Amino acid sequence: MSAQSFGCDFGTSSIKIYSKESDTIYCEKNMVAIEEKKGMISYGDEAFEMHEKAPSNIEVLYPMSFGTVASITYMQEFLKAFLETHTKGSLKGAEFVVALPTDVQDRVFSTLIQGTGLKSRNIQMIDKPVAAGLGLGLDVTQSQGIMIVDVGADTTEISILSLGGTVTSKLIKNGGNKIDEAIANAIRREYGYFIGNKTAEILKNELGYQPGDTTSKREICGRNMALGLPALLEITADFVANAIAENLKSIVDAIKVILERTPPELGVDIIRNGIFLTGGVANLKGLDKLIADATNIKVNLVDKPEECVARGLERVIKEKKFKNLTFVTKEQNYN
Ligand SMILES: Nc1ncnc2c1ncn2[C@@H]1O[C@H](COP(=O)(O)OP(=O)(O)OP(=O)(O)O)[C@@H](O)[C@H]1O
Fold first, then answer.
1. Number of structural domains, the chain?
2. Which spans in 192-306 are helix H?
3. Do 100 and 146 fall within a single domain?
4. pTM for this model (two decimals)
5. ipTM (interface pTM)
6. Binding residues
């Protein structure tokens, strides 16, 4: 591959790009800030900072939604600006390997990259679960069953891999964002306080799923809806656990459905090796135990699970033997 090769995981809440040139995974919030008349004024972590704080003439939005591109124009502007910031020299002729989520059409991403005007030389796709498997350090090309549960912001992707391919996989529209929403709704119902998504996310990330734990607490600021004034409120881990239980149950149920559909020959490997939990929500305290208890299968966790797919893309770019796991979109038409 040429000097400029990028491995792209276009997540709904954050974009992760591996750059071969700098041998680094760059990760930023996948957000853009748009000002009336001026267009995109900011992107990434800086745009996220403006989220829920910006005046009415500035709209802060996610260009991706449920694993696919919601705003191609802004995603293209973001990608171009992101690559220009993080790379030296020309981007002309760069090569891309893109992680393709289950149920998303590959041409969405080739159209996206081609439309940036970067004159890319080659755009390869790889199934996102296969990239996650490589990122876990597994040899996905072997004839053994591997179960990966990737819980991201908008989606949860549950997949069984074998021989370098996806044997079965299911994408459900449930993840960190729905969990944050459930926390905000419960606080509104129970306490009559309005809280923003960022505050709900803090509660989720800090308190996790710890039913019965009334000792761990977090103070937050919300708006008392009766008085219309901001006020402080203390939330326990037990309250958060109750608020998110239904969301987690739907993830666990989907895992069980996939296990039921798994051929017994591969099921043996999964029981032996365990389920691999990836995606940012794999960091949720107590989720691994919940899944292990419900399935009677051990659950493996890794460091920085949200970067697993990008680490897999890095291996595809660096290790020739994994090139045959990638494929090219039929419609590709290079400039
Ligand atoms: N410590 C934590 N506990 C619980 N959730 C966490 C933690 N850290 C991050 N998350 C959540 O992980 C999610 C982001 O994960 P990830 O980066 O894998 O998603 P994505 O790739 O952007 O989304 P998708 O896979 O849906 O396209 C967010 O909802 C974030 O709040």
1. 2
2. 197-207, 237-261, 264-273, 287-295
3. no
4. 0.94
5. 0.99
6. 201-204
